[in-house]
Amino acid sequence: MLPGPTIYLECNVCKNTIEIITISSGNAFFARYWTDDYSTTPKLPLEFSFKKCPHCRSLFWIDDLKELGVVDWLNGDDEPDKAWGKSKSALNFDLTDYFIALENNFPRTTEEIKDLRMNAWWLFNHRFRWPQTRNFFFKKKPLEPLNILAFHNNLTSLQDLLNIDVQSERILIAEIYRELGRFEECERLLDFEFNESLLNVREFILRYCKEQNSVVQDMTDYLNEKQRQAKEKYTLQRNKYIEYGINFVKSRAIDRGIATEDNFYSVVHKLSVEEFVELRGNYKDLHTIHFPKS
Ligand SMILES: [Zn+2]
Predict the structure, then answer these.
(1) Separation of 57 CA from ligand 1 center, angstroms?
(2) The dihedral sign for the CA sequence 59, 60, 62, 68
(3) pTM, rounded to two decimals
(4) How remote is the CA of residue 8 from the centroid of ligand 1, in Å?
(5) Is 287 a residue whose pLDDT tops 80?
(6) Rounded-to-integer distance, Cα 264 and Cα 261, Å
(7) How far does residue 90's CA lie from ligand 1's centre (Å)?
(8) Containing domain of residue 188, as a range?
């Protein structure tokens, strides 16, 4: 990941200076995808729209604070303005912060409530994502004890905010049922004609639902394998199509006496576009393939 500009903000409670570090580009190559819709793809330019003041611990929306200035290290800026005072990096929410925020009308819109509840869910699930190593970001900070009641309350409230008529949200509602251990309801929601782009996710979640497994799952390898299989199937079909097409053109050319088995390829390269189009008949894609020269 490449560092982007650092933004300097003034806390509207304690008036101290807060740094927000951004990234300018990230690599999606190592991205992982989980069933709760969490992924490690780079989120540009800011991962969160809300943070915690490192000085006074108040919670804030980034776009609510007064911007003091920006230092773009990559663009040759090297020092923050001395007038901005001593600064510290903004903190991320911990689970308690999410619940304080939700209880105290911190979110201003339904979308923001949804955003907070999704992030709280992901934070809960991090313990299952990185159970042993915990990932180096969390190394110094022991995981908070799992509060099952808060986990359940958050998920049921989140479900109410999701729209069952939007397929990607229908899948999420089903995943919430699975994680709540309500497997029958999960299965009922998945019994639905999803768009092709969601079929693999549906199949993956359904498998764990049938095993009565309620833990969040990493589906990256499964999705990659499905993608590889689809590509392989396409290539096989395509090669078959080309093979049939070439044989079709060849037998037509031989039937008409314009080519023989031996000189077919050299003849086909000398045909005009119109002659070739006439000869290939319904194999409309054949002009895009490369006929061998001999
Ligand atoms: Zn503050």
Answers:
(1) 6
(2) negative
(3) 0.78
(4) 13
(5) no
(6) 6
(7) 10
(8) 116-221
